[in-house]
Structures are given as structure tokens and as C-alpha cells.
Amino acid sequence: MNLTDEQKADIAALRATPAQTLRATSEGMERHLYEPKPVLDHGFVRVIDYMGDDTAITQAARVSYGRGTKSVSNDEGLIRYLMRHWHSTPFEMCELKLHVKLPVFVARQWIRHRTANVNEYSARYSILDREFYIPAQDSLAAQSTTNNQGRGDTLQGAEAERVLNYLRDDAMRAYDHYEEMISTEGQQGLARELARMNLPANIYTQWYWKVDLHNLLHFLRLRADSHAQYEIRVYADAICEMVKDWVPFAYRAFEDYRMGGENLSAAALDCIKRMLAGEDVTQETSGMSKGEWREFQAMLD
Questions:
Q1: Which residues contact 21 (CB under 8 A, 6 or more apart)?
Q2: Is the pLDDT assigned to residue 131 strictly greater than 90?
Q3: Is the pLDDT at 218 greater than 60, yes or no?
Q4: How far is CA 281 from CA 262, 269, 278, 294, in A?
Q5: pLDDT for 19-48, tens place per residue?
Q6: Binding-site residue ranges
Q7: Which residues are annotated as a binding site for FAD?
Q8: Are residues 188 and 229 in the same domain?
Q9: Which of these is catalytic: 223, 252, 258, 294?
Q10: Maximum separation of any 2 CA atoms in the chain, in Å
Q11: How many distinct structural domains can be found in the chain?
Q12: Residues in binding site for dUMP
């Protein structure tokens, strides 16, 4: 992660001047404010602002005035009830604004979550830095033979070195040409908005991303999952650590019911009941397709 001296000074200044407020704050999230958390080789994620805490969720659910007379244990129990029964609106009362630096190909996957407010660094007006994501060797993998959008075995030895050289050399060559094409003093050159089209998808971009807690947890459920692509999963993992400190009750419920739980179809639930009754259930007698049965078996293992 590369921060300029100006960025470091700005972060230090922001953290050195706390602001007095009457609004609810989260002690856990205050520790994260402004601090960049390194991700990948040049990326980071940092909290710029947040609104609400666990109490904001329960307050919205009860539509009460202030904290009321409910105990902490009742608050956690209510949050678990809301999570268990898929009540989304109370979780929308909390919001988080992040500053993220990430490779363009990760950003294009991330932006598919169309439930946030996003403002991205503009390569029409500014010149992108010479920073590219180059995977560590243990992250280089062949195409999976069973999953069209997944990875297989890790590349080794000369094959891994060959691929890494291509990634480095092609990225640097593309950036050299990008610089040469751009308009400079004494050279008409090409407009920045056109020159950028020659840049590779592993160049880094930055954006501000603001989202409510309900939609953030949906993002984390998908992107912090072990099946998610590694390069976006590490960002989700970093955000998970922040959310855990921000809304601990909500995050524990999220871990239990979303990350650690399973949703069962009517057919799957029927199979479990039959198995508990002693019946030997097979794919042929389950009422499930082969794919559903394979996932069902994996859930039980």
C-alpha cells in the first residue's frame, strides 16, 4: 500500500482533531476512522464516515424515543430476531462510507452491487498512477476443470514465472504508451479520456462507496464467502473486521444466520426429516436435481 506524504499528513490531522457531537457514536468504529487497511499489493480500504450503531437498529425497530428502558440483552435478542426473520428496514438505519483503492477488474465486479452510492476517481480529468495489481505466486491458479468461473490448481515453477512476467511486462508497456499518448506541453497528444482505454484491467482506481448496513451485509455475505474470487474477498474480509467493531450485535447475528447458517428448500427440509426418521434417502428419491443433491450433501458433511 503506497500513501503519499500528503495523504499520511491528512490522515494524521483528521485523527488528531476529534469533533464533539451529540449523535450516537461507536467506540469500535471510532478506532477505524480514516485509517487505511492494506489490501492486496497497493490497495486499501478505510472508513471515512459512519452513521448509527446497534442501538439505531433496535430504536428503528421499536420506533421509540431515545434509548428507552430496554436492556442490552433485549437489544441483542431483538437484533437476532430481526436477522433471523429477514427484517431488513431496521438495518438500513446504519450507513457506512468507505474510501477504497482497488484494481479496476475488482471494481467492475464490485459495482454489480447496485445498492450503494459511488463516486470513482476520474481518468477523464486526472492521470492514473503507475500502480498495478500483480498477484503473489500462490494466488496464480489455472482454470478450474469443474467450475467455469473458478480456479483450479496453483501454477508452479517456470509456468508461474512466465505468467508473472507477462503480467508485469504488459502492464508496464501499456502504461508507457499511455504516458506517451497523453497531451503534454509541446505535444498535442491524445485526450485523457481516450488514452485511458489502453490501460489494463489490473491498474488501480479509487472510489468513495456509501452503503446502508442491510445492503452492506448482503455484499459481505456474497464477497466474504469462500467461493468468492480471492481479489474481492480480501476487501470483504477487511470490511468485516470493521463492521464487527462497529455493530457487534448485528455482526454476531450476521455470522450466525447468514455466514454460518444454511437456507433449506422444502425438498431439502423434507429429506432431513426422512433421514432423521431412519430412511435411506438417495438423490433419485430426494426430489432434487444432481446439482441440488451435491450441494445438499456438501452442507451435511
A1: none
A2: yes
A3: yes
A4: 20, 12, 9, 13
A5: 888 888 999 999 999 999 999 999 999 999
A6: 89, 109-114, 120-124, 196, 212-214, 218, 223
A7: 89, 112-114, 120, 212-214, 218
A8: no
A9: 223
A10: 84
A11: 3
A12: 109-112, 120-124, 196, 223
